[in-house]
Structures
1.
Amino acid sequence: MDARSKTPPTSITEVTLDVLEDTLSFYIRTMNIAVSRDLDDKLEGLDVAKGTGKITTLLLVDSHPGIRPSIIAELILRDRSATGRLMEQMEDHGLITRRQSSTDSRVQELYITEKGAALAARIRPLVTEQSRDFFKFISPEEQQQLMDILKRAYRRIVGLP
Amino acid sequence: MDARSKTPPTSITEVTLDVLEDTLSFYIRTMNIAVSRDLDDKLEGLDVAKGTGKITTLLLVDSHPGIRPSIIAELILRDRSATGRLMEQMEDHGLITRRQSSTDSRVQELYITEKGAALAARIRPLVTEQSRDFFKFISPEEQQQLMDILKRAYRRIVGLP
DNA sequence: GAAATATAGTTGCAAATGTCCACTATCTGG
DNA sequence: CCAGATAGTGGACATTTGCAACTATATTTC
């Protein structure tokens, strides 16, 4: 419950968020929407639209030639099936190629294409910049704090040391 | 680019995230997946499944009787159309009711039903608890820090003072 | 007071995403 | 050599969200 007034609120400023006001999950979930939207705008038309999936994959394949889908799946927190489709999509776009591993024929090795590499090079600064700009109203120290904490959380969740 | 070894990585521990390693957006987006999934599990079967939308709406309507959809839309960062459907859904589930405002007939006033109120009461502690538990591996002080920063960001984005 | 502009909500359409599950192929360990 | 794990695929499906167009009603402006 909350401070209830007789008349319904007519502006967001008259509203409190109930328990969500102090709920970390709420802010993470909501900020996600905002950040993602902003990122999409900044990357508009870049073949790597919506979703952390594509960006992460592109960069990962670029910097770890031969990486396999299942590893990417773990890192982006999706199941193999979703990840597979993502790979397919990126292959269709000519960004990566898939090759069967010679040592274990169940696994695929992913490699970046020229086009993919070019895109990766182009995207890297954009992604960094977007993040910096988006959060520029909080101090660099706080950004760092925030990131340290979230990084720790992330690593713990995906099972990194 | 990144430390590249000749052989492809076979475990996530051998992988670095390229520039994403230091990109706040990446962590927000990824943590969002994790938190949301966890929350869904905790709330399973509770008529308020997937999405911040439903929870926020329920609590908001419960603590601000007569609140209108457009305000909720702003707070949950969705457009009116998506929000409208959300309201419809919740009405179908018997959680809220919609009534035309007597002072401005364009506007709807939302009210909680008994069922909705009961659910809100039940959910409040769950949501709080979920958030606390999910982040329990980071210290309370840091959780607080994190929340303060994100709260500030959120308020700025939706345009709250 | 009439016209122009803004706001609230609805609806159709479409696209994209993610999930569950079952299935095949292949590896590894006992 | 068999049992059980792991990698990838494909199907079916539900869900969500966004855009754009449209109506109704308020508000502002001249």
2.
Amino acid sequence: MENVPDRPAESSRPADTRGQADREFVGGLARGLAVIECFGTDAPELTLTEVAARTGLTPATARRALLTLEALGYVRQNRRRFVLRSKVLRLGAAYLSSMNLKDLVQPQLQALNARFGDASSLTVLEGNDVVYLAHAAMEKRERRLRQSVGSRLPAHAASTGHVLLAHLPDPARAAYLAQAPFPSFTANTPTDAATLQALCDATRANGHALVRDVIEYGVLALAVPIRDAAGRVFAAINCSADSMRTRDEEMLATRLPALRAAANEIGEALARFPALAHSTGI
Amino acid sequence: MENVPDRPAESSRPADTRGQADREFVGGLARGLAVIECFGTDAPELTLTEVAARTGLTPATARRALLTLEALGYVRQNRRRFVLRSKVLRLGAAYLSSMNLKDLVQPQLQALNARFGDASSLTVLEGNDVVYLAHAAMEKRERRLRQSVGSRLPAHAASTGHVLLAHLPDPARAAYLAQAPFPSFTANTPTDAATLQALCDATRANGHALVRDVIEYGVLALAVPIRDAAGRVFAAINCSADSMRTRDEEMLATRLPALRAAANEIGEALARFPALAHSTGI
DNA sequence: GAAATTATTTTCGCAAAGCAAAAAAATCAA
DNA sequence: TTGATTTTTTTGCTTTGCGAAAATAATTTC
């Protein structure tokens, strides 16, 4: 389900680069972004050689990218190790602030949170993950899993993921499912293509997705789609409660009408600020 | 206080570009990042011409950058408007996940939150802003201002901002203060250089910063520095309470010892994962 | 609708950035 | 220390990408 065109930013064999050398493609930009993304939890500090290995760039090229990023303040070099700096958060902030989420969706999520005590969030699909764009939660529960804006969850293990996968165009969903099996987090995590396809079908038929103990034991979540003016699903919102204290029927009876109402209102609000809807899709 | 070297990513006069043309600087990368950052709340969707105007790039160059970003999935073109896509959040996520904050600092902040009911957060300085890297809050209060990871506040109007500015090297602080006056949010917001300098001096002398109704009426916040092994301040944590219900003395008496203890523990924890400390600084 | 205006795309010569490989530095072994 | 290995930086040459301006396309104005 990669929504990225086949334009490998990095290529182990530089000869490949020729083929995609449109007149309109800035290789240096693609390479630099790959360098930023190659940092991660497992790699907070990387040497030039490590960056080159992870990105498939030659050392000379990786070095140019790192020195450029350093000159711009996105990277810092300490001895021979490179580290990302907080300035990279500006890049994500440019996206989040451009979506007007604070004004348009945060109030709806907070109302759900206040009414039911559930954590409530809005997510979109990005690659194989759902990304949290807005979130409201009472954080008094000592829950292990704690989401915040910008964080990700694998789509196959999230209620909103099921909703978003269900409304993907068939070829895109097929491409996603072709990557099965997916990692399992609990005994309830759907991991194979057939199960996920069935869940998607059910989700489309029901208009909602209810998942219990799928990403983590103790989490019961209910999600519904958000549609743009043309009826296309581009985001999903959910509520998540304690699976020990809440039965499925109760969850549906109490939360579903409120979630649907909130989804409608958010859909209408975002119709007047279509940036988010425009930013998603095939 | 810009921590960015004088390397204008965009230059209205292309002739300038020569001077900075090190052999090791990838202009295309700098230009592409400038294109991403030129989107914002006021500009969720931009045309090619608007991007060119905002970045100072020529239309031809802006177009190459936008088409590259589109091919990579960071940007989407709808009709003639360009929009950022959620993939740009990967760039910030690379930073956040590389800092191991979830494991090392989140528990401390949650303990503070649980004990006092205050919102508690860890921030670093980035340009003129403090950036939230971790946050714990009971979101039941219907507070207008709601922070989350990655969000920003102007340093002159934040408790952690005062702490971080106070421990800046003198020339960096002078460069920051030279930008005064700063915008005012309440009658209590310090806006001029002299006032801010005095607040910094007091903060350094006290080892903490207490601000009341500075960013917003109703917010009372107390911040303390976090130091690395060498004693250098690279981050700050704070608690923020309801300014109506809490007097200054009470805030100091109850929160300060706990904040200092948490700051010490975080400092020690991060000494073993020095990526964050290394990522900040001059 | 036609004309004027504005926006986007293409073209082209020159400068910049890519790769491969060699040279230099740094690190590691003994 | 010295010598072997790895990592980083430099170099020569080629390809890519930039800016200015021309050409095309889209909007707006009348």
